[in-house]
Fold:
Amino acid sequence: MNNIDKKINQLKKESRMGVMTHVVVGYPSLKETSQLVLLMSKCGVDFIELQIPFSDPLADGPTIMKACEKSLHNGTKIKDAMRIAKDISSKINNPLIFMAYFNNIFKYGVKKFCQDAKSAGISGLIVPDIPPEEEECECLRHFAKKMGLYFIPVLSPVSTIKRIKKNLKKGEGFVYCTAKQGTTGVSQTLNLESLQYLKKVKKISKVPIALGFGISSRKHLQQIKGNADIAVIGSFLINLIENSENNYQKKIATFLNSLQE
Structure:
């Protein structure tokens, strides 16, 4: 059984919403990436999304884009992400998910990427820039499935019913929904339009729903409860790192622990 399924079954048994954190590999550094993931696991996070940095991350807002730039400046390569994932997966039970843009995967080699990701202990892939109808998506999905990796579909508020159904048809594990149109970033509130969109996906989806792009408080989790199964927290955590000098790990731990209260 895929680790994602194991975790989802656990969440259902405990009747609680899951939390997935987003980390850019190599930010602030490769060593700190490993430390961050271990800290997040210790603080009760359920899923951990490891983003492989890319020079033109179209689906990301300024916060994550800046983190990607710094990571690339540090010299981070895909092989580093594989190495870190392999090391971390041997120490924690959390499902690890690679978030990557297809250009990176294509240059690395689609088949090799899936093989190495599996060997590194990765459970699923999120690739936001590849439509389900493109041949490249079929190729990637083929090798991902062969390696036992879940290919997680991405939806946005502007997705039509037809596209939602098409994305969900071959999606596995859970579906990743963005809370707003456009790029990622922190929001103060989740508007009515976002909640209505979640309800629409909920009616169609047979897999759990993960909601990203803007989650930054326990209040947000309460707002989406019943319409989403997993809350994704990314930009808020990166801002904590960016705006702190030496104590960001303590701030992250305090925040993540507050979500469990």
